[in-house]
Amino acid sequence: GRMEDRLVSGCREIIERHELPMYSTGIGAKGCVMFAPEELHDYRDYLKIDFNLSYAHWLYYMNRDIFMPIGADEQWTLSVQHTDQDLEDHLAVFEEFARDVMAA
């Protein structure tokens, strides 16, 4: 839907602009940023995830009052309670995260 498209495309734009080794994907209400440089296709590919970066991402959001379930592939579940401002807040934190990761 519209909300999923906004989060996935917003994250993709930030990833591309900062040249991060990851990608964003979603289906329906579920979506995430995968911390791997290439698309994952099976459980062996899952081992290519940068789990340290994934954990840092989780901490980054939690420290900015955006609750994220812990796990490298379960970052958001959208609901009717989410607003356009919630999506923009999420993307603003991801932009800050991307900037800080590339500066490190």
Uncertain residue ranges: none
Order of helices and strands: HEEHEH
Strand order of the largest sheet: 1-2-3
Question: Per DSSP, what share of the residues sits in E-state strands of 2 or more residues?
Answer: 5-15%
Explain what you see.
It is a single chain. This protein has three helices and three strands. It has 104 residues and is mainly alpha-helical. The radius of gyration is 13 Å and the shape is globular. The termini are far apart. The longest helix is centred in the last third of the chain and has 20 residues, at 84-103. A three-stranded antiparallel β-sheet has the order 1-2-3, with helices on one face.
Please give a quick description of this structure.
This protein has 104 residues and is mainly alpha-helical. It has helices at 2-18, 51-62, 84-103, and strands spanning 23-27, 30-34, 76-77.
Show the helix and strand layout.
Blueprint: H1 2-18, E1 23-27, E2 30-34, H2 51-62, E3 76-77, H3 84-103
Antiparallel strand pairs: 1-2, 2-3
Record keyword descriptors for this entry.
mainly alpha, three-stranded antiparallel β-sheet, 3 helices, 3 strands, about 10% strand, globular
